[in-house]
């Protein structure tokens, strides 16, 4: 067990989501853009069309800076944010797939060295040698994609891993293949927007401008149609029933689906416009398409994470880092039964014994029970909910917080400690919640803290008092 980091101003889960969405945009772009550039370079070599090298060189420079510098930095950011937000979940993935991670880093090394060699050898090696570099870059990126998808899909559908404990069974899980091909198809839609952004930045008299725009638009539309087909006929049917239930539950706000569907429609119409009127394309339109895709990716990645709830690894580890399933093949035993008997406080590392919890300054809680409750609420609830003012910001007198427990309990008319304790007894009935873990005394302490937290939301703020 590890400490819990709530976040700072915004929730830890939102830090992960923002960094991940940008990294997905950049990393997916590197794979499909490598294949698109390979296609154009083959035409340049075998059809003797040197004008295509103008686009290829500009695209390679953009990929080197945007995807391989800023995108790679975001990749490091993912490790930082996910490790801070849920260290035990990341630890499980590392221990289970350590050799796979090593293989992925090797593929990524091929990517990084490959794009540098690819860009700086334009006009310095023979066209056929340069074409071989394009092949290496495309295959290296695809290898990275395949390994990452296996690990990510394991978190939602561990499959036979529950029975065998073998990492290979966890890697080739029920959603591995559909997610791999769906992502691969969507990558070409992202690359289409990228190609439009690059080619519209070239001089208007550029000979191959309209041809590249049309090719990119067809590729992007095709990728979008194929990806949607895979979603409806392969990926969605492969999802576990629990994930389908979460998709229809309040755990995913309706605005998320609006962003995803709106982004897909806008992208489809934008690519149709590019196909029909290539001369009317402008960099501002292409940049807008990239921003729309970022918003859609953000919504889609958040949805993919939420449909696992209440788990970080479906069926094995809850979002609050407790193991609740036996894996005999790995010698793993569930933890909640023992913790219900011994209590949480003092039984897990970084959860102090009750007598060690501070009440006075700087904590400033009214009594020891409330202070105990805060420690427990952070451990059990903070992975998914705002449970303190540390992860809330106020904009134009509007308090913004991720799934605030204070607001949730107020909507359900559960604002007093006895009502909140009754609510905590029954939360396991929700499909996106695990039952409370701990002793009755700890549950009562959590209820007292949540009552105090609700009251704090309505307390006059210091600035407001000063104005009076």
Structure description:
The chain folds into two domains: 7-239 and 253-306, Formate dehydrogenase/DMSO reductase fold (Up-down Bundle), CATH 1.20.1630; 328-460, Cytochrome c-like domain (Cytochrome Bc1 Complex, Chain D, domain 2, Orthogonal Bundle). 66% of the residues lie in helices and 4% in strands. The protein has 18 helices and six strands. The chain has helices at 12-46, 52-85, 87-96, 98-120, 127-156, 161-164, 167-171, 176-199, 209-238, 241-247, 254-276, 283-306, 336-342, 368-381, 405-411, 417-425, 440-457, 462-467; strands at 7-8, 10-11, 311-313, 317-318, 392-395, 398-401. The strands form three sheets. It has a two-stranded antiparallel sheet with strand order 1-2. Strands 3-4 form a two-stranded antiparallel ribbon. The protein has a two-stranded antiparallel sheet with strand order 5-6. Helix 9 (209-238) packs antiparallel against helix 11 (254-276). The protein is elongated. Residues 462-468 have low confidence and may be disordered.
């Amino acid at each position: 067990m590890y400490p819990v980091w709530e976040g700072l101003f915004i929730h830890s889960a939102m830090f992960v989501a923002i960094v991940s969405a940008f990294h997905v945009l950049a990393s997916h772009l590197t794979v499909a853009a490598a294949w698109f550039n390979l296609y154009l370079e083959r035409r340049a070599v075998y059809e003797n069309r040197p004008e295509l090298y103008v686009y290829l060189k500009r695209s390679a420079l953009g990929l080197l800076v945007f995807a391989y510098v800023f995108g790679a930095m975001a990749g490091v950011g993912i490790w930082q944010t996910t490790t801070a937000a849920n260290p035990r979940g990341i630890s499980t993935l590392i221990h289970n797939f350590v050799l796979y991670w090593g293989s992925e880093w090797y593929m990524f090394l091929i990517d990084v060295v490959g794009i540098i060699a690819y860009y700086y050898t334009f006009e310095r090696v023979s066209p056929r040698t340069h074409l071989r570099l394009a092949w290496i870059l495309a295959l290296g990126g695809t290898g990275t994609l395949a390994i990452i998808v296996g690990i990510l899909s394991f978190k939602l559908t561990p499959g036979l891993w529950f029975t065998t404990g073998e990492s290979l069974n966890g890697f080739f899980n029920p959603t591995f293949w559909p997610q791999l091909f769906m992502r691969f198809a969507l990558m070409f839609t992202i690359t289409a927007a990228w190609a439009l952004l690059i080619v519209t930045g070239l001089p208007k008299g550029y000979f191959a401008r309209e041809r590249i725009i049309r090719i990119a638009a067809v590729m992007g539309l095709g990728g979008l149609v194929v990806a949607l087909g895979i979603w409806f006929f392969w990926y969605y049917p492969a999802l576990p029933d629990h994930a389908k239930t979460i998709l229809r539950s309040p755990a995913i706000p309706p605005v998320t689906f609006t962003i995803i569907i709106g982004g897909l429609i806008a992208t489809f119409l934008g690519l149709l416009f590019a196909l029909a009127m290539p001369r009317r394309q402008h960099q501002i339109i292409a940049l807008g398409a990239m921003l729309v895709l970022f918003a859609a990716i953000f919504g889609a990645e958040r949805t993919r994470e939420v449909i696992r709830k209440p788990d970080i690894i479906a069926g094995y580890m809850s979002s609050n880092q407790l193991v609740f399933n036996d894996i005999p093949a790995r010698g793993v035993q569930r933890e909640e039964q023992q913790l219900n008997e011994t209590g949480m406080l003092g039984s897990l590392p970084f959860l102090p014994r009750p007598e060690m919890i501070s009440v006075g300054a700087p904590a400033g809680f009214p009594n020891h029970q409330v202070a105990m409750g805060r420690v427990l609420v952070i451990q059990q609830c903070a992975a998914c909910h705002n449970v303190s003012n540390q992860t809330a910001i106020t904009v134009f007198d509007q308090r913004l917080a991720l799934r605030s427990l204070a607001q949730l309990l107020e909507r359900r008319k559960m604002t007093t400690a006895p009502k909140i304790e009754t609510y905590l007894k029954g939360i396991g009935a929700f499909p996106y919640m695990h039952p409370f873990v701990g002793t009755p005394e700890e549950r009562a302490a959590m209820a007292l803290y949540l009552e105090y937290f609700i009251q704090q939301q309505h307390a006059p703020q210091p600035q407001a008092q000063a104005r009076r």
